[in-house]
Design a protein that fits this description.
This protein has 198 residues and is of the alpha/beta class. The protein contains six helices and seven strands, in the order E-H-E-H-E-E-H-E-E-H-E-H-H.
Length: 198
């Protein structure tokens, strides 16, 4: 008897992650998990995002059906060894964008994939990004669009923020919020993967 193929359980509220999973035609359900995202003292961006992805996936496993795969991810923008989170207000966004202006930064995502009774798979993916110099006017106008709100590093490469990006080295979908190439590699190797839309 063939096991029932459950939809993937996405432990994220991110509309971007939902769009990316739809792009590769995965059948999925959404179950956002609320975990404390405070970085620990001395924690690198890579360790932070992997720890948070695992914590979200482990929390989601408690809601999953037997045999159902759970996917969680966390993404930060990193300058040097510091992770930039999501801006709470204009002052936060302006400070973040000024730090990114005219320089190179990293976008680091942690992913965790697991299902009940199996060991958790986890990894990080890093993309290098160079942003053009931004003027105070650029930053004010960008904030007024509403796009920087809720975005790691206060910009969205898939939106108006794309005009600020000179180049990237690595996964574009990682910068959006979920590295699809690496996810597809995992899905190709797991038993009973989640179904896809026809």
């Amino acid at each position: 008897m063939t096991p029932v193929a459950h939809p993937l359980l996405l432990a994220s509220a991110s509309p971007r992650r939902r769009e990316l999973l739809e792009q590769i035609q995965l059948v999925f359900e959404v179950a956002p998990m609320d975990v404390d995202e405070t970085p620990r003292p001395g924690e690198s961006p890579e360790v932070l995002v992997e720890r948070l992805a695992i914590a979200k996936a482990e929390a989601a496993l408690e809601r999953s059906a037997p045999g159902q795969w759970v996917l969680a991810a966390d993404t930060v923008v990193a300058v040097g060894g510091e992770a930039l989170g999501k801006p709470a207000a204009f002052a936060d966004a302006a400070a973040m964008l000024q730090r990114l202006s005219g320089g190179e930064h990293r976008v680091v995502s942690g992913m965790a994939l697991g299902r009940p009774g199996e060991s958790m798979r986890a990894r990080t993916v890093t993309t290098r990004v160079r942003m053009r110099p931004l003027t105070p006017s650029d930053i004010e106008h960008y904030w007024a669009t509403g796009e920087p709100r809720g975005k790691a590093g206060a910009y969205a490469i898939q939106g108006r923020g794309a005009a600020f990006v000179e180049w990237i080295a690595g996964s574009y979908t990682n910068v959006v919020g979920l590295p699809l190439f690496e996810l597809e590699q995992w899905l190709a190797r797991i038993p009973d993967p989640p179904p896809r839309r026809a």
